[in-house]
């Protein structure tokens, strides 16, 4: 199974677009700033090109990870890596190669990944940083929506 690099590139842009919407002051930006202790001065003090550049690199890494999370045939491909021309592998892929390859399935697994991975990771960090539930829910909500969209793109775009 070959990677759909175009789908991965498009999915990697999703966190930037969603961040611009989600953390906009007219949406949840003001609530996030209050919950996180962020100030306008702190925002303006950051090196924006570096922040967005690193964010894009990390988003590409995430998009590659989402690919393996939402497309189940990746596991079969990894098992057959030493012999992808094997008749049994070819028969398996002929029968099941496109099974569960839809936007809806990818969205579901993206959301599940956010709830069962991102929520615990961000939640634990936030608790030790003494952040409130509002902070946790704003950030986890962003990742649920973002990973849902990324999963839909990567899985459904054949």
UniProtKB/TrEMBL annotation:
A Pfam cross-reference name: DUF1761
For this protein's source organism, the top of the classification is:
Bacteria, Pseudomonadati, Bacteroidota, Flavobacteriia, Flavobacteriales
Keywords carried by this UniProt record: Membrane, Transmembrane, Transmembrane helix
The protein depicted here goes by the name DUF1761 domain-containing protein
This protein's species is Winogradskyella aquimaris
Which InterPro entries does the UniProt entry name for this protein? DUF1761
- Segments crossing the lipid bilayer: 6-25, 46-66, 107-128, 135-154
């Amino acid at each position: 199974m070959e990677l759909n690099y175009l789908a991965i590139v498009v999915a990697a842009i999703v966190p930037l677009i969603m961040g611009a919407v989600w953390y906009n002051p007219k949406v949840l930006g003001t609530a996030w700033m209050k919950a996180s202790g962020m100030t306008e001065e702190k925002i303006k003090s950051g090196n924006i090109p570096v922040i967005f550049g690193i964010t894009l690199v990390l988003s590409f890494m995430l998009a590659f990870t989402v690919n393996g999370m939402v497309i189940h045939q990746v596991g079969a491909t990894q098992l057959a890596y030493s012999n992808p021309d094997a008749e049994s592998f070819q028969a398996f892929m002929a029968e099941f190669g496109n099974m569960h390859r839809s936007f809806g399935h990818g969205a579901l697994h993206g959301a599940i990944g956010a709830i069962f991975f991102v929520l615990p990771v961000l939640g634990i960090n936030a608790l030790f940083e003494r952040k409130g539930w509002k902070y946790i829910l704003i950030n986890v909500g962003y990742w649920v929506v973002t990973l849902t969209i990324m999963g839909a793109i990567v899985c459904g775009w054949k």
